Amino acid sequence: MMQSTSLVSSLSNSSPLSPPTTAAAAATCHRVEAPFTGVVTASSRVEFPSVHLRPYRSTLSPPRCAVSKSVKEDQEMALEDGQDDRIARIASAIRVIPNFPKPGILFQDITTLLLDTKAFRDTIDLFVERYKGKDISVVAGIEARGFIFGPPIALAIGAKFVPMRKPNKLPGEVISEEYSLEYGSDKMEMHVGAVQAGERALVIDDLIATGGTLCAAIRLLERVGVDVVECACVIELPELKGRDRLGDKPLFVLVNAPGA
Q1: Which residues are marked as active site?
Q2: What's the burial of 184, exposed, middle or buried (CB within 10 Å: 0-12/13-18/19+)?
């Protein structure tokens, strides 16, 4: 997959993210207006543990903050002092590998983030701080890297974790949703009975590129009456415009990264 540098500082009044009450934002970064959902970003500093990996230099873009024009102040998420430092650590911990899986691609490798216990913890903490107390009962993780970030977030906010899997991976009765790829199509599956109508869900993956898998997950959940509150990713590749495919569904990301 491929990846991105941003952090949402607020949400729209119409956004379902905040049931009854919300915290006022205390972000210390600058604001700029963006056309859809807001993302707040920061950039870079990290100390790696001793691991046998080839040296690299991050090519991530410098920090910036963006807030959608639809965002209303009374639904802004609280941002703690020092949050920019945490996002900076996360951005620095993501390794960029050129020409993988094919020439011209800058692959955003989160395995180096997982080796840095501080950056990994910061990543989970930022998501937990955003969604705790928001009446989310389901965290739906997209195979495979959504399985890394989803379960600890679900446990921390008191939600169940539901895996969204590739075909023929789940052993029980499933419902499926087909989605388009650059060449051909694929399917996403979920266990029948894993979620109930009226539940509020967060969909999470490590990265949004073209947005196809996130859209399939949204459709799958909504088919059984689940309210998809928001999609969340560690990284976004803005050049691929996956955000546009989500329609009116909010998207929260930590890092914006170049895709090529």
Answers
A1: 145, 182
A2: exposed
